[in-house]
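thought: fold this chain, then report.
action: predict
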Amino acid sequence: MSEAISEKVKRSLQDLGIGDEAAVTALLGELRATLDRDLASGQDAETLRIHWLGRKQGLIGAANDNWLKTAPGPLKRVTGKLINELRKHAEESIDALKNAATQELAGERVDVTLPGIRREIGAHHPVQWVMQEIEEIFRSMGYSVETGPEIETDYYNFEALNFPPDHPARDTQDTLFLAGSGNYLLRTHTSPVQIRTMEKQKPPVRAVVLGKVYRRDAPDASHSFMFHQMECFAVDTNVSLCDLKGTLNEFTRRFFGPHVKTRFRPSFFPFTEPSAELDIGCLICGGSGCPVCKRTGWVELLGSGMIDPALYGFVGYDPEKVSGFAFGCGADRLALMKYGINDIQLLWQGDKRFLRQFR
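observation:
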């Protein structure tokens, strides 16, 4: 749109130095030429209508006020005639643009009887399904669900869990420490939440923890540097190893089915005494041997044991009055067993063909 002509319509004919019919005709011709350029510029019809025919800011209305009303008597007739012709031309041209736009939209009308476009529907990840099921099982057994930070301190991740200063797990070859952060690290297990929960809650305590953990593991069929872990613990008076075994058997049978085989093996963990590993019969191969079970027919499912009394000193519990158990395992590994997946890396490759199976 021409700024020059916009300035001219704000001034009277006298200010513009126009005093004869030829000059008026030329001036209105310039205004019409500007209108025609705007009509051909591709602007939408409503923008053109406001700019040319609008009551407050329309150029033709301004020309009528500033040119016709101030024109000398002999020039009023020709000025009014030319302005009326210009107004009619603008109205007809802008109406034509509106009609053309309406017809174009009508040509693009959607046939609502046609089938719609099929959109992909999202699905829960298999690990998410597993974590939800674990939560439901333990909630039904009277456990609360606790959470904690993924960036932890050395105190909660190791010291308060009875790890000695020279324990291999505290080495940078096993643990991901944050550069330049002092003693901050990515938690290697969900056990720090056990300490945080006992700090703020007195016995009896029964809780399950679900979340991400990080370790310097080389990826293979059963390991990943980031995975999900389930941690469960209970502290009360007279809690025994029998309670631990009963809880684990109840959990594995409800999670995997009533026919799952289990076995306990003596083990060692810094934060439990005595400690035991729980193995289950491999659900991938049925015990005949495969890469997941390392050809043994058994899969190490989780570590467990009675909470070492040394931990109670960090949280203000009296080890003479209370006892408890704790166990934990990878939720990703549970997903492998639950759904018959033979490679943990499939969980994180984002292959839609694989993930669609778990809707």
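thought: worth noting. The radius of gyration is 40 Å.
final: tokens above.
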